[in-house]
Design goal:
The chain is globular, with a radius of gyration of 21 Å. α1 runs antiparallel to α2 (67-97), α2 packs parallel to α7 and α5 (147-163) runs antiparallel to α7. The relative contact order is 0.14. Helix content is 47%, strand content 23%. It is of the alpha+beta class. It has helices at residues 25-62, 67-97, 111-120, 123-128, 147-163, 210-215, 222-232, 256-261; strands at residues 3-10, 15-22, 107-109, 132-136, 143-145, 170-178, 181-188, 236-241, 247-254, 264-266. The structure holds adenosine-5'-diphosphate. Residues 160-161, 164, 188, 190-191, 193, 201, 206-209, 213, 218-224, 247 line the site of adenosine-5'-diphosphate.
Length: 267
């Protein structure tokens, strides 16, 4: 069972609506189960930073006379609360994406521009690791969608490429148009992802190496968010990777002409 988009254009008003339809009952039942699972996972994931924060607060109280220790604990307290904030933000984003009311207010989006901004916003972390972001290709056509969501998706992919890459490497970002699809690819020279992990990395809270992911500031929700954004836009995401040879994530989104062809015009 799959979700599908139906474009409906109300001709006299010139307004477009997209309806997201769950196409059968099984899908609805499955969605409910997945949601319960999500709640259980969320509670579990929140416990770690919340627990750390209360321990650190106690430690600060106990170390009141030791200025150096207080500074150290305070720095960790800030880090844990930033982690908690990121986690809460990703959880909200993901639960919004799992609802049926996403991409209601879509528009024609120029991915050249969105991608350029996504790269720009990742400049600082890249510079910190002396990673070069090399951008190639432009596209003529637009995609239909939600700019903020597409931005989030592209930023997450570039952010991961930077976080999982060693210093002094290159992250390649490419844009091209092919067979009525716009293709965005993000390639890194990082550790790569083993074949048996390649599907799992898109699952919520799945991390290949939880300790390292925590260290690099990940929430375990990034790729899951990307996957949902892409699906909500009628696209797909794929991963090519070989351990030791880096990874390439490729997003394919239908160009706007395709969407218009499938429109049902009500007059
Ligand atoms: P996280 O917040 O942990 O980065 P993601 O959902 O973005 O969560 O990714 C899930 C897991 O997939 C990560 O913990 C990491 O193990 C792996 N991963 C994601 N992107 C890459 C990449 N570019 N190279 C290697 N591993 C990656």
């Amino acid at each position: 069972a799959t979700n599908m988009f139906v474009h409906v254009r109300v001709a006299p008003l010139g307004e477009e609506y997209i309806l997201l339809l769950a196409d059968d009952r099984t899908e609805i039942t499955r969605t409910a189960a997945v949601r319960n699972d999500f709640v259980a996972n969320v509670s579990h994931e929140l416990k770690t930073p919340v627990g750390a924060i209360s321990l650190l607060a106690e430690a600060i109280e106990g170390a009141a006379d030791d200025a150096v220790a207080v500074r150290r604990f305070t720095a960790r307290l800030h880090k844990e609360s930033a982690r908690l904030a990121a986690l809460v933000q990703d959880i909200i984003e993901l639960s919004r994406l799992q609802g049926a009311d996403v991409v209601l207010a879509g528009a024609g989006i120029d991915l050249n521009e969105v991608l350029a901004e996504a790269v720009d916003r990742n400049k600082l972390p890249a510079e910190e690791k002396r990673i070069t972001i090399s951008v190639g290709g432009t596209v003529e056509q637009q995609v239909f969608g939600d700019r903020d969501l597409l931005m989030t998706a592209l930023r997450n992919l570039i952010d991961n490429a930077i976080r999982y890459s060693p210093e002094d490497t290159t992250v390649g970002v490419g844009l091209r148009q092919r067979d009525g699809l716009i293709q965005v690819s993000v390639t890194d020279q990082g550790p790569g992802i083993a074949p048996e992990e390649q599907e799992r990395v898109f699952e919520r809270f799945y991390r290949i190496d939880a300790a390292r992911s925590r260290h690099t500031g990940g929430t375990g929700l990034g790729l899951s968010i990307v996957k949902h954004v892409v699906a909500n836009h009628g696209g797909e995401i794929s991963l090519w990777s070989r351990p030791g040879h880096g990874s390439t994530f490729t997003v394919r989104l239908p160009v706007i002409e395709d969407a218009v062809e499938n429109d049902q015009t009500i007059s």
